[in-house]
Amino acid sequence: MPLNPLSGRRFLLVDDDESYHYTIGLRLTQKDATVTSVFSIQEAKTLLMSQPFDLILLDSYLVDGLGAELLEFMLQNKVACPVIMITGDEEQQSMQQYFLLGVSGYLLKPINVELLELVVQRCLDAHLNEQKLQQQNRELEQLLDEQQQEEELARHVYRHLSQSFSDQPDAVQSFMRSSKSFNGDFFVAEQLQNGNTLMILMDAAGHGLASAISVLPAVSTIRAMLHEGTSMQNIVHEINAKLCAEIPEDRFVAMIAIEVNYIQAAISIINAGMPEVLILNENGQVHSRIKSQSLPLGIVERNDFNPYVHTHPLHTNQHLFFYSDGLIEQRGVNGEAFGKSGLTNVIRSLNSTNALLNQVVDAFSCHSTGAQVEDDVSVCCVSLGQLHEMYQGKQASVDGLRTGHMQLVLDFAGDLLAPGNMISVLDDVLNRIKLNTLLRQKAFTVFSELINNALDHGVLRLDSSLKHDFESFGQYLEERENRLKTLEQNDRIRLTLGFEPEIGQLYFDIEDSGSGYQQVPSEQVEDEALFGRGLNLVHSLCEQIQVFAPGNRTSVLIK
Q1: Where in the sequence is the domain holding 550, given as residue range(s)?
Q2: How many whole angstroms separate alpha carbon 506 and alpha carbon 494?
Q3: Do residues 258 and 321 share a domain?
Q4: Is the CA virtual torsion 197, 203, 209, 212 positive or negative?
Q5: 112 with 178, same domain?
Q6: Which of 1, 32, 107, 247 has the lowest CB atom count within 10 Å?
Q7: Angle CA(491)–CA(495)–CA(496) in degrees, nearest 5?
């Protein structure tokens, strides 16, 4: 604070008494202030419209009217300047009127110059603080407006990504409730090109906009990879790599990924940092509990990310039940969490698993009534029987073409060898020729496996033994990505596709530019191995399969 806070200040003195002009003017000018003196309201109005002042000293009674008239003029013309009334009028009604018109303070005649200086300084300080507060309010309003726009943009992106997925099947029931305007949980249930059903539930750390933004890279990755014919494990690995690259180090995303394979009659589950997945019998009894055995995504890099895959047989009389931790951590008005005990009580009271979701949601809503929802809540229940019926219904829904013949030869070279390009072309072709659903799914599975083998082991010359465990599997994927960046024009894969609708068969011939690779015999594939199983699946789905020396060309027949 300066030693002389009045130095450089500009004052307007409005008074028709010359003695006060002298007394007040002398005191203020001694403090290095500038004082402009006028004797009438009209003079004051003229000056206020032409130049600014830091403070006005205004007599209540002047030769041409009352001081209140000038106060009203200032309000009408939005002249923002503190005013101190100089008056001999001590009536409360008059004082009340002055303050209603915006007066900052007042002085009673005769004037005490020391008191004058104190009142003037106090009014100036108060006005300065008010200006600072108004500026802060303007900045806050601007910030809130910008935040609102950013939130609306994020909401638009989130909504767009959510709508880009197909509607979930009737066999999959879900309930989602956010603690704030944004949801850090995300759930998707989609049918893959090979006919399998993939379900993914994600729960980003925290809640609100920050958690919603954290989950967006994962959502975009899922959308991009759903139609590439890749495995659930590959999708999860890519999501983890994406999150490690794009979200802050203190953020992560817990995930449950489930793939239902109808041809193999199996369920594969990855639980990465989520509450246990329950497999329930039709009477509501818990058959299995799939606890998390993997770290959440976005914590460790690709080479160290080793998600454990639980595999279970597919039984059509069972249900899957899984949820985010917001369900069991929600507290009621008494502070008690819903907990696993609350969930267990609901399950024990079931007569049928068909009503499970509704009863869990009802119990949760009752428990949380009157309490603030602390975290995002997601609950999913899947009828495996209904899923299987849906799958069989789609198989029978299209008979396919009865007559005709088609042969298609495609050469892919250089950058066009990306697996997604080739698989997208095949998918488009299969859609156009209206294959029977089962034949189409077999074809997609076989083609995806053969194309990936031709690319990985033929063109890119990657060794399958690199995938002997999950740690090295991560290294395998990283090396694959690096080699894809070095593809040249002489690197190629030729695809020949033949279709005979009258006998209901497809023919694939895939030849790569590599030097050939040795396929692993099925009897040499270990139970826990991460390689060799795909070719065994190809053998099981094909009527005929032939590998030509030196191993860079494979022909298959599918019926």
Answers
A1: 399-558
A2: 16
A3: yes
A4: negative
A5: no
A6: 1
A7: 150
